[in-house]
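Suppose you are handed only these lines of text.
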Amino acid sequence: MMQNAPTLRRSVLYVPASSDKALAKLASLSCDVVVVDLEDAVAPDRKEVARQKLAGILGDRPAGVREMVVRINALSSEWGADDLAAAIACRPDGILLPKVETPRDVLEAGDVLDEADVPGTLRLWAMIETPRAVLNIGAIAELGRDVASRLSCLVAGTNDLVAMTGVKATPDRRYLMPWLMQMVLAARAGGIDILDGVSNDFRDLDAFSADCAQALAMGFDGKTLIHPAQIDPAEAAFSPSGEALAEARKIVTAFTLPENAGKGAIALDGRMVELLHRAQAERLLAKAAMIAK
Ligand SMILES: CC(C)(COP(=O)(O)OP(=O)(O)OC[C@H]1O[C@@H](n2cnc3c(N)ncnc32)[C@H](O)[C@@H]1OP(=O)(O)O)[C@@H](O)C(=O)NCCC(=O)NCCSC(=O)C[C@H](O)C(=O)O
Ligand SMILES: [Mg+2]
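From them, the structure of the protein bound to magnesium ion can be written out as follows.
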């Protein structure tokens, strides 16, 4: 199974709900998604204040942003239930659940949304950042096949995964790689998006571009970001290149030729091209059209 309708989640910027300076900056930024964070970016003694700011933040949506998502604290924490109620009241496009460990964690949040009669357009996102989440990733992602579950996107939480497992965080991410690839595979099976974790070294943009290129090659749909300087390189990496678009157009056109009518596989420039390649090409062109809008 391939993904549902294409989405644009190339650049997904966390903004601490407690940082007036970062929030003020939002109006001048253009990224695909903003995640207003109530969790790790907010110190325990600022949680209440941060939550009270939500309505103002969501009410002042930056023009260039496609989706506004709120990351709440875990429902098992002392702040989770109040965060969820506050987020629901603000009607963001999505609510990001941290420290998800089982499908039940997603379904519980969905039940709260259903009980509050929240339209299905408010989607749930889930952080995959604990050892149990990685072990349960297939079952969690499978929820994506059931629209009623609202699950739309998984987000790798590599900082927590490194902290909880004790693996060494190397620039090439060699010890995280098996778990990250498992996340990509599971997301594809569930037909939902999967975003790469953050790169902490926000001043080294060359290293960041390399991280993005690696994430793209691994199959991620986009990258989560911690700093505005990371937006442009992420969007450059996750936007289809001119060359890829030209190739996609060539494939789509080739299948419309009379000599290829009714064929499942054709020859193009000495290569075999199948209908699955046409579907891939159409998806790429649809993404480019979304970017152009
Ligand atoms: C990391 C930072 C604390 C650095 O901030 P700062 O020292 O202020 O950086 P700069 O001076 O270079 O900032 C330049 C201007 O940009 C604004 N800014 C910085 N970061 C953001 C942001 N995320 N969103 C919006 N605007 C931002 C500054 O205010 C400056 O503005 P101005 O002076 O007016 O020009 C900081 O970048 C930061 O707090 N980043 C976000 C941290 C965060 O959200 N962390 C939690 C999410 S990551 C995570 O949890 C990972 C996951 O769960 C896992 O387990 O892996
Ligand atoms: Mg985390």
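What can we learn from it? The CA atoms of residues 138 and 186 lie 5 Å apart. The radius of gyration is 20 Å.
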